[in-house]
């Protein structure tokens, strides 16, 4: 296991009911109940939190500086110690985890939200691509994922049946997740971008999530069964799609190695695979076999609030550990086209070396 | 719950970017129907070229010309082209490894249907009629004969062209249907009736206007609607001497913070109906609405005695 200065645990997790539209709510109005819920789970007030870190992107809803307005929902005045990343909340969690490791904080509130409904997320996400060579062609995320899926098919590692299997299992699992947007199986539908069918694509989602991290004795005080982060790391691929082997995810494998994921088997994995084909890439990179329960929440195919869907993976495995349903779990988050950047965290119910 | 307001919102943002030597040579080359890659220390030719080796991070500068024909390494069929994409008829997205290159370039392939494309297929560049030095100087790819001949290797190239590009302007546009949410909708509906309606925090009782739905001190929803005014107090102001574009107001004029009676924080607006050099802190004012505008056009003096400093110092 990686060795860290402090044992840090997820002590609470909350998420919204994820929906296609939340027209009646601004971003802070959508987020605030989730913040209240996660604080209530620990009995902490905003003033008790040492560090707050959030992840969001103003491009999704087209609202400039929305993250500053979202901070109103935290109660950020007089000024609190806080930070923001224009990334999925999983990376905000990473920053908060580092902050706690430095000893500057014992507790952290991490939240993220995405309100994709006002815009066209297929157009919006093209703006994150290489501005010289790729963005002027406006290739949307399903198109890039479809190139990856075809590469898997050409390599003999997938076929449409296997993709459909991922989609149907994910949504069947989501039937038991009251927060999910697509609960229960649905037809694969027509091609969206061949070889991907509409069923292989994630829904367009508005939603939010929040996590509270705490160190050492503080974690034990706040949570009966803390979900200890035994390892966490993130890595990135070369940025040019044509340089990469799209059928593999070496950055995921490397992050998992550094997070200690391969030292002992996990019983559960929540993978942030917005497209069905990407789950196959991740399963291979992480060496997950059928003994592992993959995406019991339904994953991003059942609810995909962009900027929050990765943080939710960490929250979902933590919640399973809190409930005693998992002893050792892996959470993965991704960002960018075709699994460009990947974060892996390993969480356990058992405490680490720093405590013993 | 009143109906939520919504309105179209267009965000346009042209980025003006400078080009390094490698990108400048590549994009200028496209203008001249020449495709350049860059050679790494390990001998790989990267197309499109990058300035640093993705494997070693070494700076790259050794340019090489590759072919205008290449091989499809993966593809996806796009039956519904979207705005801005290379073709407006259904096409295949392709990654193409051009002859002489070791990496692949993303673009569109013009073929009639998904049955007419496969991985390993030979394709060639169709150049745009008008070229400016952009990835879109390649209009798309089209099928090429597969004669089985050995692929041409990359050849060294100086990267020198007449009138090289040093920068590019890349337009972008995103369209939204904007909905402001509950609190702002309520505020905007009030304005239509020429009423200024804030919301009170249930914890600290401060009245926020315009309400944004949350109290930033207590982190709770503001729910109770409170109409403020009808008059207010100038808390602070500035004299504007520079005429703003598209603003039909003579300078100098006064722009002020106005704390409406009952509000916990000031609105801001222009002060009219009084010479600019007579405006003062504490002056009592009221909003002036104009037909056709659903917001106060400006604020004018009410003639009441000035407010005592203690009455508004918390709102400075």
From TrEMBL, chain A:
PANTHER family, sorted: ACETYL-COA C-ACETYLTRANSFERASE, ACETYL-COA C-ACYLTRANSFERASE
Protein name, per record: Lipid-transfer protein
Originating organism: Streptomyces coryli
Domain of life, source organism: Bacteria
InterPro entries: Thiolase, Thiolase-like
SUPFAM superfamilies tied to this protein: Thiolase-like
MF (Gene Ontology): acyltransferase activity, transferring groups other than amino-acyl groups
From TrEMBL, chain B:
Protein origin, superkingdom: Bacteria
Keyword Endoplasmic reticulum included in the entry's annotation: no
Secreted found in the keyword field: no
Residues covered by the ChsH2 rubredoxin-like zinc ribbon domain: 189-220
All residue ranges annotated as the ChsH2 C-terminal OB-fold domain in the record: 65-127, 226-290
SUPFAM superfamilies listed in its UniProt record: Nucleic acid-binding proteins
Recorded GO MF terms: DNA binding
Protein name: DNA-binding protein
Source organism of this protein record: Streptomyces coryli
């Amino acid at each position: 296991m990686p060795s860290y200065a402090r044992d840090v645990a997820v002590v609470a997790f909350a998420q919204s009911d994820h929906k296609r539209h939340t027209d009646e709510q601004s971003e802070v109005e959508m987020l605030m109940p989730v913040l209240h819920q996660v604080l209530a789970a620990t009995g902490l007030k905003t003033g008790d939190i040492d560090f707050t870190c959030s992840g969001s992107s103003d491009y999704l809803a087209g609202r400039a500086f929305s993250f500053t307005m979202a901070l109103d929902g935290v109660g950020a005045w007089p000024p609190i110690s806080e930070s923001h990343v224009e990334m999925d909340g999983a990376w905000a969690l990473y920053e908060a985890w580092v902050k706690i490791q430095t000893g500057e904080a014992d507790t952290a509130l991490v939240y993220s939200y995405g309100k994709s409904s006002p815009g066209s997320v297929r157009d919006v996400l093209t703006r994150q691509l290489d501005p010289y060579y790729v963005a002027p062609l406006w290739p949307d995320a399903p198109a890039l994922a479809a190139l990856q899926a075809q590469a898997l098919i050409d390599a003999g590692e997938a076929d449409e049946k296997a993709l459909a299997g991922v989609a149907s299992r994910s949504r069947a699992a989501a039937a038991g997740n009251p927060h999910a947007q697509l609960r229960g199986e649905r037809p694969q539908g027509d091609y969206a971008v061949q070889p991907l069918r509409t069923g292989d694509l994630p829904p367009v989602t508005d939603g939010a999530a929040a996590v509270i991290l705490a160190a050492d004795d503080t974690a034990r005080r706040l949570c009966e069964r803390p979900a200890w982060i035994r390892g966490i790391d993130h890595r990135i691929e070369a940025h040019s799609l044509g340089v990469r082997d799209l059928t593999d995810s070496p950055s995921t494998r490397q992050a998992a190695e550094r997070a200690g994921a391969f030292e002992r088997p996990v019983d559960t994995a929540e993978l942030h695979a917005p497209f069905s084909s990407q789950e196959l890439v991740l399963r291979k990179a992480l060496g997950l076999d059928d003994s592992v329960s993959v995406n019991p929440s339904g994953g991003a195919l059942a609810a995909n609030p962009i900027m929050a869907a990765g943080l939710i993976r960490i929250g979902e495995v933590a919640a399973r550990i809190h409930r005693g349903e998992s002893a050792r779990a892996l959470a993965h988050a991704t960002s960018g086209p075709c699994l460009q950047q990947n974060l892996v965290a390993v969480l356990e119910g058992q405490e680490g070396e720093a405590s013993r | 719950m009143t109906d939520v307001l919504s309105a179209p919102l267009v965000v346009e943002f042209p980025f003006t970017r400078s080009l390094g030597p490698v990108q400048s040579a590549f994009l200028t080359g496209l203008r001249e129907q020449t495709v350049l890659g860059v050679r790494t220390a390990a001998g790989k030719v990267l197309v499109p070229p990058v300035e640093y080796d993705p494997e070693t991070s070494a700076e790259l500068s050794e340019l090489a010309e590759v072919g205008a024909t290449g091989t499809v390494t993966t593809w996806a069929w796009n039956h519904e082209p979207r705005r801005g994409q290379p073709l407006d008829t259904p096409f295949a997205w392709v990654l193409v490894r051009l002859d002489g290159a070791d990496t692949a370039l993303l673009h569109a392939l013009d073929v009639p249907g998904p049955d007419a494309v496969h991985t390993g297929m030979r394709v060639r560049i169709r150049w745009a009629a008008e070229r400016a030095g952009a990835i879109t100087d390649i209009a798309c790819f089209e099928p090429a004969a597969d004669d089985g001949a050995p692929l041409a290797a990359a050849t060294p190239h100086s990267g020198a062209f007449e009138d090289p590009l040093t920068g590019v302007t890349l337009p972008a546009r995103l369209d939204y249907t904007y909905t402001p949410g509950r609190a702002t909708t309520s505020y905007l509906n009030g304005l239509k009736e020429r009423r200024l309606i804030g919301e009170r925090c249930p914890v600290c009782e401060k009245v926020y206007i315009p309400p944004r739905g949350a109290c930033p001190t207590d982190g709770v929803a503001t729910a109770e609607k409170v109409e403020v005014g009808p008059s207010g107090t100038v808390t602070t102001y500035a004299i504007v001497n520079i005429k703003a574009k598209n603003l039909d107001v003579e300078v100098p004029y006064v722009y002020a913070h106005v704390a409406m009676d009952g509000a916990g924080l000031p609105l801001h607006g222009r002060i009219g109906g009084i010479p600019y050099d007579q405006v003062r802190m504490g002056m009592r004012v009221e909003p002036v609405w104009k037909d056709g505008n659903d917001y106060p056009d400006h604020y004018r003096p009410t003639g009441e005695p000035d407010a005592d400093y203690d009455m508004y110092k918390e709102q400075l």
